[in-house]
Design a protein that fits this description.
globular, mainly alpha
């Protein structure tokens, strides 16, 4: 079993920053960046869980739900990861999204 703590920490940190961000920051792109990350994490989790099945796209639940969507998708992916390399790759995705979001 692989240690996914680095991923859950990175996801939790990004989600906390989103929750603390002012509405203006969310509107300027942080929420959109978070949704794109959540969709990508969700897509990866679904492909690992059900190879060959078409992944469903995470819906846009609004800017105030973006932190929760990142959290859920990140934890779903953490359950499916099987190697330290996969964990490191997922952590990089989160860190890059947070940098682009500017929070």
């Amino acid at each position: 079993m692989v240690d996914t703590t680095p991923l859950t920490r990175a996801v939790g940190h990004f989600a906390d920053r989103l929750r603390a961000a002012p509405q203006s920051r969310l509107q300027r792109g942080a929420a959109a960046e978070a949704l794109e990350l959540a969709r990508e994490l969700s897509r990866r989790a679904q492909l690992l869980e059900s190879p060959g099945a078409e992944p469903r796209e995470m819906p846009d639940a609004g800017m105030f739900a973006a932190a929760d969507q990142v959290t859920v998708a990140g934890r779903d992916l953490a359950v499916e990861l099987r190697s330290e390399d996969e964990v490191a790759q997922a952590v990089r995705l989160v860190e890059e999204a947070q940098k682009r979001a500017g929070i």
